[in-house]
Amino acid sequence: MEQKVQKVKNATEPKRPLLKNTFQAFMAGGAICMVAQVFIEIFQELFDLEKELANNISVAIMVFLGALLTGLGVYDKIGQYAGAGTIVPITGFANSMTSSAIESKSEGLVQGVIVNMFKLAGSVIVTGVVSAFVVGSLMYFYGALFG
Amino acid sequence: MKVGKQSFDYKNVYLHNSAVVVGPTENEGPLSELFDFHYDKLDCKQKSWEQAEMQLYRNAFNICLNKNNLEVKDIDIVIGGDLNNQIIIGNYVMRDYDVPTIGLFDACATSVAGMIVSGNMIDAKNIDNAIVAISSHYGTSEKQYRYPVEYGGQKPESSTFTVTAGTSAFFSKEKSKIKLTKATVGRVIDAKINDPLDLGRAMAPAAFYTIKQHFLDFNTSPNDYDLIITGDLSYYGSKMLIDLFTEDNIDIANVHKDAGMLIYDRDRQEVFSGGSGTGCLPAVLYSLIRKQMLDGELKKVLVVATGALLNPIIMSQKETIPGIAHAVVLERM
């Protein structure tokens, strides 16, 4: 590779608007969490549910909303604006599952939807399980030694 | 006849009528009136993205036959290509036609590769005519190369928007107003870019070396052409191409245009840095450029198709994305 190609390559590299993206992700991610918090408060205050149960129902609702907005073709448009703000919350997990499922529908229920549904979300599950194991082990031994 | 290092010229190869069938986003773009047919939805009334692309391919092929007053038996060979694994679109459509077929894959450079192969066969008198059929589809490309269409990941400004189009063009030894006169076959160039959302810049060096070699082989300069049209470098790739030539003290900015920037209106449409895909260049070439040539506005056009040789498996193995570019010259007779 000629040196000038390297030079022009570096000079033409598009600048990613890091600050703007971070701000938008912060606002959108925060807004999603706020919606979930509203659900938790409603279930705790109005329906008199225990905190843990209220949490779980709210998570289920957020997953449902993420999947619904994906099916309606809206979530990817929000995601283009919000970036990590819509990927990191549980709605992003729902989006990755639903979008994979929709995309694979043409290959049928088994070969398509079932096989491919966790194509993107699988990485989240593996990472989650492994890190839970590591952190759990550390806490156990810490407790055994110093507890 | 071979000319220079990587080029050759043609004596008797002509471009006749062509057909372009597009999807919704292309039809909302500035060239909408020049296309033969369009679909208002990306699924083209089919059950899968793949079937939709086959529909575009089939429509364009049939319209091309009609516009040239041909039947299938009149065609000596079909040279086809698309972006799907095993070039399934072209090969599956051609199941229904009784005609010899060659499938090509050079990523988004396939359109010009097809013109070169058919041109060589016609000029060598192996065949009298050929149809070059090319397609790409936003859905099949996203599915195979990137993420599901509805996935909410953020795309950077450097990403391109795959053109949904089926195109067919008839080439023959019989005279017409547009002649295929020259060709330059490109080398695989790896600029060590590994971002599949920055393909324009991955291909720009390949385009640069092919165009430069073309000038060298035929002893020409940018001023000898009314237009140098590249396939799908889009905004950032075009900028890089122009900058590469500036390093050599050659100014191509005045004669260069990119099909990926012509097919969409970037200010009005959400297409990031512009169009890409195998169908991008032929969709513009066989509509706008061919019309401008027939109208006499353009006499000599250097057509450079650019391909990013992207493969998700090898990319996961920490490889980079090489590019390839092939060039042909079309002249108004």
Question: What do you see in this structure?
Answer:
- The complex is a heterodimer of chains A (147) and B (333).
- In chain A, α6 packs antiparallel against α7.
- Chain A is an all-alpha fold.
- Chain A is extended, with a radius of gyration of 21 Å.
- Chain A has one domain.
- Chain B has 333 residues and is an alpha/beta fold.
- Chain B has ten helices and 15 strands.
- In chain B, β11, α7 and β12 form a beta-alpha-beta unit.
- In chain B, α6 crosses α7.
- Chain B starts with a strand and ends with a strand.
- Classes of the chains: A mainly alpha (147), B alpha/beta (333).
How many helices of chain A?
A: 8
Number of strands of chain B: 15
Name the CATH superfamily classification of the largest domain in chain B.
Stage V sporulation protein AD
Topology-level CATH name of the largest domain in chain B: Peroxisomal Thiolase, Chain A, domain 1
Quote the average pLDDT of chain A. Answer: 93
- Indicate the CATH architecture of the largest domain in chain B: 3-Layer(aba) Sandwich
Distance, first to last CA of chain B:
20 Å
Order of helices and strands of chain B: EEEHEHEHEHEHEEEHEHEHEHEHE
Form type of chain A: extended
> What's the alpha carbon Rg of chain B, rounded to whole Å?
18 Å
Write down the domain tally of chain A.
1
Average pLDDT metric of chain B: 96
Described by its quaternary structure, the protein is heterodimer
Could you say which overall geometry of chain B the principal axes of the C-alpha atoms support? globular
Pairing-aware structural class of the strands and helices of chain A?
A: mainly alpha
Provide the helix percentage of chain A: over 70%
